[in-house]
Amino acid sequence: MVPSMLASTYETAPPPGYQVKLPLFEGPLDLLLFLIHRDQIDIHDIPIARITEEYLGYLQMMRVLQLDVAAEFIVMAATLMSIKSQMLLPRPEPFGEFPEEDPRQELVQRLLEYRLYKTAAQSLLTCEQQARQIFTRPGESPPDEIEEPEDLLEVSLFELISAFEQLMETHPEEVVHHVVLEEYTVKQRCDYILDLLQSEKKIAFGKLIRSDFRPIAMVITFLALLELMRVHQVVVRQRTAFGEIWIYQRTDSTEKNAT
Fold this sequence. Notes:
The structure is a single chain. The chain is mainly alpha-helical. The chain has one domain. 54% of the residues lie in helices and 6% in strands. It has 10 helices and 4 strands, in the order αααααβααβααββα. The chain has a 4-stranded antiparallel β-sheet with strand order 1-3-4-2. A hairpin with a 6-residue loop joins strand 3 and strand 4. The longest helix is centred in the middle third of the chain and has 30 residues, at 105-134. The radius of gyration is 22 Å and the shape is globular.
């Protein structure tokens, strides 16, 4: 669920006056698959009450961060709550050879089909990236054996939100000083991130977010990162699923691989 610290930040501090509208590169089924994979849940036996609570928590987090929540997410939330209510009702005794249909069955089928197509698409993308490394164009030299962003795993929006939530939950106690606070804007933090990437090859997500420990500054830095992702100026990657998240400046090679 949404950390109380983050919610109170937006209740007591003036909002940054900016709303990030991201393209829908991830939808409600992606969020459900992310939660199932993260919690190592059997997709055929989804604990619907638990998943519904976590799903609604992510929607609330997206609203607090002023992200544009598409209608599809709201529809899925209603679907989950409907299934949850059906699961709470007394189940009648099975009649003859035809047991009652599980209310989760249709959702599970949708998730299985979506995961199948998503895995196939990812496999094709991996093959394309491997081919780029093997077959070079005339006049081009083979790529150096160094770690590049396109060789790592892509980080989803939900993984970023999850990592950000964990940082906010482990936020150290604030030391109160009577000082005049510097006001940040999303654009200023975008420039700050790009300046860092000019001098460093990559930035650790946690280090970036905690470059200023004030909760409102952490939120605006996170929004700035999402904005840079939206305009294709940075990419975020990780070596392993749910591992350390790294931020890279987008280069010509990453631009080609993204198209």
